[in-house]
């Protein structure tokens, strides 16, 4: 059973998500919160598999709530999915930096919403290649000043290559084809790189790749 926490300041949104999720045999909504502070407290109490967290909320916003959940070792198994009305904006990018597994726009189709919850619960990155490319577009428009990451020195050449391909928007199957390796080996390279770089998921891996200077957006 996938256990879900809903954190949103709009009761109507929460009730809609609860009804949609509650109709599924393999999903259970364990709690609801109206702001980020309450959401973090309920995450600590219930330790859900997935926390659906709105970006903009009173008291504590979704970015800070995500940061607190990601920083708590006891909540390592909680996968935060950020909810937004606005698509990819600076708030979502900050949430990814803070440790979110990915994000959803609130007008997503119900079947895509349910699929996303299941993907996040498995621990897979909720960041499709198309979304990765939108992230790349954002970095191209406003490229950060690269900050060298000493952890990159611990990556093997193949791991660095795999990370670069992730940051260029390729799926695991595409990475495997590009590197002439099996999809399992490609996933292994990516998982090891995430461990070495202390990235919670693929979304953070993309951010690290650009902010460390491993990949230049102008080269995409």
TrEMBL record:
PANTHER family: TRANSCRIPTIONAL REGULATORY PROTEIN NARL-RELATED, TWO-COMPONENT RESPONSE REGULATOR
Keywords, sorted A to Z: DNA-binding, Phosphoprotein, Transcription, Transcription regulation
Stretches assigned to the HTH luxR-type domain: 148-213
Response regulatory domain: residues covered: 3-121
Gene3D superfamilies in alphabetical order: 3.40.50.2300
SUPFAM superfamilies assigned to the protein according to its UniProt record, in alphabetical order: C-terminal effector domain of the bipartite response regulators (SSF46894), CheY-like (SSF52172)
InterPro entries: CheY-like_superfamily (IPR011006), NreC/VraR/RcsB-like_REC (IPR058245), Sig_transdc_resp-reg_C-effctor (IPR016032), Sig_transdc_resp-reg_receiver (IPR001789), Tscrpt_reg_LuxR_C (IPR000792), WalR-like (IPR039420)
Organism: Dactylosporangium darangshiense
Positions of post-translational 4-aspartylphosphate modification: 54
Protein name: Response regulator transcription factor
């Amino acid at each position: 059973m996938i256990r879900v926490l809903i954190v949103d300041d709009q009761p109507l949104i929460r009730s809609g998500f609860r009804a949609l999720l509650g109709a599924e045999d393999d999903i259970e909504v364990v709690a609801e919160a109206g702001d980020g502070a309450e959401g973090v407290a309920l995450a600590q109490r219930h330790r859900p598999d997935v926390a659906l967290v709105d970006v903009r909320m009173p008291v504590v916003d979704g970015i800070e709530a995500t940061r607190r959940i990601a920083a708590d070792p006891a909540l390592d198994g909680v996968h935060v999915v950020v909810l937004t009305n606005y698509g990819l904006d600076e708030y979502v990018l900050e949430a990814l930096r803070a440790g979110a597994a990915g994000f959803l726009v609130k007008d997503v189709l119900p079947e895509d919403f349910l699929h996303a919850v299941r993907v996040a619960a498995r621990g897979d990155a909720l960041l499709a290649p198309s979304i990765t490319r939108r992230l790349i577009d954002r970095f191209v428009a406003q490229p950060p000043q690269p900050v060298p990451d000493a952890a990159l020195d611990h990556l093997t050449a193949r791991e660095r290559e795999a990370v670069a391909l992730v940051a260029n928007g390729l799926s695991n199957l595409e990475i495997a084809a590009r590197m002439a390796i099996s999809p399992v080996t490609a996933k292994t390279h990516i998982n090891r790189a995430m461990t070495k770089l202390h990235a919670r998921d693929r979304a953070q891996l993309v951010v690290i790749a650009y902010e460390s200077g491993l990949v230049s957006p102008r080269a995409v």
